[in-house]
Design a protein that fits this description.
single chain; alpha+beta; Thiol Ester Dehydrase, Chain A; disordered N terminus
């Protein structure tokens, strides 16, 4: 699945490239890529900072758009939100910036489902240069399925859990990315 290059502006603020696009029907017989490759944007001028490369906040923006593509793959779109009052919210993100990327350069995002339970989804994004394949950044995220009216976590419906299970099975043979779960801190030499 690919999507337009630039985010859309909505009356409520910044939108995502897929906002307003309904989730396609789930096909349980369709092959599932490992990892998923759902989003291939180009670095936009508004993503570039005064150092001449993509700004740190825009890495999160792009990972968020990749999450949105994943949500739609599993059936979470505006209809899911509006009809059931549920959505996935990000509760934790850890980004590793590895290489710079400049305006106009192509990106290729992948997504690996690391784990899930009835209320949480643990995913891993990898941002690659679309031409060279170089790894530019990674993003690890914990998502929670939320009842928006009550403002708290709630179990996902069985059909959503079944879709996540199918993806988890397809991703089970992938190695754990080395950035997963890495603590942040200043390493000091002893002595």
């Amino acid at each position: 699945m690919t999507s337009p290059d630039s985010p859309t502006k909505k009356a409520h603020g910044l939108g995502t490239p897929l906002e307003g696009t309904p989730a396609p029907p789930w096909d349980p017989t369709a092959p599932i890529a490992a990892p998923l490759c759902l989003y291939r944007p180009t670095v936009l001028p508004e993503w570039v900072d005064y150092n001449g490369h993509m700004s740190e906040s825009c890495y999160l923006l792009v990972f968020g758009d990749n999450s949105d593509a994943f949500f739609r793959l599993v059936g979470i779109d505006e209809g899911y939100r509006d009809q059931g009052g549920h959505s996935l919210y990000t509760v934790q993100t850890h980004i590793h910036n590895i290489r710079e990327v400049a305006e106009g350069e192509p990106l290729r995002l992948t997504l690996q489902l690391l784990d899930f339970d009835d209320k949480r989804v643990h995913i891993f994004h990898a941002m690659h240069h679309g031409a060279s394949g170089d790894l530019l950044a990674t993003g690890e995220q914990m998502l929670v399925h939320v009842d928006m009216a009550q403002g708290r976590a709630t179990p996902m419906p069985a059909d959503l859990q079944a879709r996540l299970q199918a993806i988890a099975q397809a991703h089970a043979s992938l190695p754990m990315p080395p950035q997963v779960g890495k603590p942040m801190g200043i390493r000091r030499k002893s002595g």
